Amino acid sequence: MKELIEIGKKAKEASKQLAHLNTDQKNKILTLVANLLESSASSILEANATDLKLGEKMGLKGAIVERLTLSEDRIRGIAEGLREIVKLEDPIGEIQEMKQRPNGLLIGKKRVPLGVVGVIYESRPNVTADVAGLCIKTGNVCVLRGGKEAFRSNNAIVQVFHQAIKECGLDHRMVQLVQDTSRESAMAMMKLNAYLDILIPRGGAGLIQAVVQNSTVPVIETGVGNCHIYVDKAADLKKAVAIVYNAKTHRPGVCNAAESLLVHEQVAGEMLPSIGAALAEGGVEIRGDKTSCKLIPDAVPASEEDWSMEYLDLVISSKVVGSLEEAVDHINSYGSKHSESIITENYSHAQYFLERVDAAAVYVNASTRFTDGFEFGYGAEIGISTQKLHARGPMGLKELTTSKYIIYGSGQIR
Amino acid sequence: MKELIEIGKKAKEASKQLAHLNTDQKNKILTLVANLLESSASSILEANATDLKLGEKMGLKGAIVERLTLSEDRIRGIAEGLREIVKLEDPIGEIQEMKQRPNGLLIGKKRVPLGVVGVIYESRPNVTADVAGLCIKTGNVCVLRGGKEAFRSNNAIVQVFHQAIKECGLDHRMVQLVQDTSRESAMAMMKLNAYLDILIPRGGAGLIQAVVQNSTVPVIETGVGNCHIYVDKAADLKKAVAIVYNAKTHRPGVCNAAESLLVHEQVAGEMLPSIGAALAEGGVEIRGDKTSCKLIPDAVPASEEDWSMEYLDLVISSKVVGSLEEAVDHINSYGSKHSESIITENYSHAQYFLERVDAAAVYVNASTRFTDGFEFGYGAEIGISTQKLHARGPMGLKELTTSKYIIYGSGQIR
Fold first, then answer.
1. Binary contact (A407, B198; C-beta < 8 A)
2. In terms of domains, do B271 and B315 share one?
3. From CA B122, how far away is CA B118, in angstroms rounded?
């Protein structure tokens, strides 16, 4: 696709400049963008209003409209997010593990930008600014391909970036928005190996799987979360109720929300009625196995599919298990390797769970809702990786970098 | 493909045990394998002789036969390699950056095995033992798909692993050799996302590109090296001659050998005749641009394709450039991002080259031949990554691991 090849070429060109800017230069851009976003709020909101109007005609509703909608407050939030990125330490240039080899070679591992980062995302216009901000801070050119429903909003935000970059006398092509929002442009991006160093899909399971299956560009798989809470036989009832309730209801539409409850059979009689009552009060539908349904009056029977579901809604599956080992096996079989938590007061059970569960984040006595770049102290997040290569779990600035070995010699040969 | 799905299932099963073995248990296997390889040398050599005989009928010759051939000495070398792996520190279990968050959560990043590592390789049977050894040490199950010309040799080596693993009372399925060596089995491996966590191709450019283009399993691209030596205008003649000669002739068939020479025009008259004479003495064919051909009597004219060639042979391309910047641009355009070296006594030129050249390893005043896990002090190597994701440059034990966040809570909710 012609547009994408053009974008790719420009991106490579812009990367030659951006990759070598110092921290002050990058922070200056970000600060200027933050200020301009606030002062240009009205034009961004206008573009957003058009998107929303067209969306209404296209029949968009509910959560999508909610995610698409901007407001003065949200724009201020986006600007604040960029100011937070300014405050974060610049990971670029750090040299790790520098050592002198026996032959006198001095070898160090220098942190450098990836180069050109592609992101395919759906309806949230704030992703445009978040990704562009994180990429600029890490010296990466970004190629953004947002959803068509947010096209005007995204464009308005990118215009602000361009204005700020130009005011700094730099190459505005460091931030590029793909203008073609067809399915074909997404597919073309997945084959753009000559220009993209990495491709990150952000959105629903359908988008992510399409990218994983079709991309020849290296992909970081993000986000799908079928997260479990396992209530061990040595669980504290109060903690169990509070954590299950929080993990399910605090923000059910996000990937680190709990989707499945496992309870040890020896304590199911004590735990499930209380947990069930709390969830019912929170408006949660419970899909249970036989025992769960017996112990929770409002529960409906679960089908085999329920164990794999990411509901992203006020629904949770519930299963009674015979042992800690069975719980871990169930999680490793049905989970999406995102976030998993055990509620227990037993030391060995906690250690076993931490060791054996295969996931990006494994918790003892805490809500899965903490799997998040901000909560982990990274100050920012470009996504949550559920794959094992390059990055796992919340991806902050460091995950947008790679390394190169730099070697100081004095004439060494082999 | 049925065989691969079966292998995948067994691999996942074996991973449940291997991933949680402690260092002593893993070292015990490796030591036993090393001893058994030496005591079973005759049966391995017998299998290898059959491979060689069949290879002769198939018309194999030269370098391939050389790579395929085992001897008592080579087997001892393989066993010694495994004993070296025993001595290396086990990276698994290390917990990095453990910190207490303001809410009391204790968050750490634990180093864990990737899970199941697939490797597709060509004719060298020693790769079988090297990869299996590195994978066992890092708690990874390996699925090995070697070339058909080495099938009997590979099988004999894998039998020794199985014997040792069984003698340790452990699951021998932690090392698996694909029995079908057809093109189809390689293709099927590239789609085995359900069972493989990573796929590493080791071999020529054709194999590597086939894997990059077709694999839906995350790939680590290895090995192709179009490495340059840039002789700066501030170069020391003696160092330049020695380093170019070494980088080209020390072992021309490997990926970190130099394939292209760039010389600053201001010193070409001084440098090229001496470098050319040394290379000619080493039997190297020089393919030069106009100026190079003028200055080196034996040089033949280069075509545009020569700038991109990985000869893997006693051939080198030579080009005279007008500036340091032109040299860097040429390298970033035609290089394979493997290893690049500048010869200079000028501080700023050295720093510019280190900063601007985009490659896994960038050298000042040293031969590119040092890009190697052993030379870098990692004690072992599973390949040299030329991609930017997950690993870049020589991949040792750490590059065969991933992380998981472990979080100790005391009832935290959001």
1. no
2. yes
3. 14
Closest residue on chain A to B352 (Cα):
A20
DSSP B19: T
Contact B413 A369 (CB under 8 A): yes
- Write out pLDDT tens, residues A26-59: 999 999 999 999 999 999 999 999 999 999 999 9
CB-CB under 8 Å, B246 with A362:
no
Range of the domain at A237: 227-370
Let me know if residue A377 belongs to a domain. Answer: no
Cβ distance B70 to B82 under 8 Å? no
Nearest-CA distance A53 → chain B (Å): 35
Same domain? For A210 and A252 the reply is: no
Model ipTM value: 0.91
B344: domain CATH number? 3.40.309.10
Q: Give the residue ranges of chain A where pLDDT is below 50.
A: none
A212 CB neighbours in chain B (<8 A) are 193, 216
Pair of tokens at residue B257:
């050998």
pLDDT of residue A379: 80
Cα–Cα distance for residue pair B340/B361, rounded to 1 Å = 7
| Substitution target from A12, A337, A388, A408 for chain B, most B beta carbons within 10 A | A388
Query: In terms of residues, how long is chain B?
Result: 414
Number of domain units in chain A: 2
Q: Are residue B87 and residue B48 in the same domain, yes or no? A: yes
Contact (CB, 8 A) for B286 and B298:
yes
Q: Are residues A186 and A57 in the same domain?
A: yes
Three-state secondary-structure class, residue A142: strand
- Say if residue A137 is in the same domain as residue A282: no
Residue tagged 């017998």 (tokens):
B46
CB contact under 8 A, B20 and A216: no
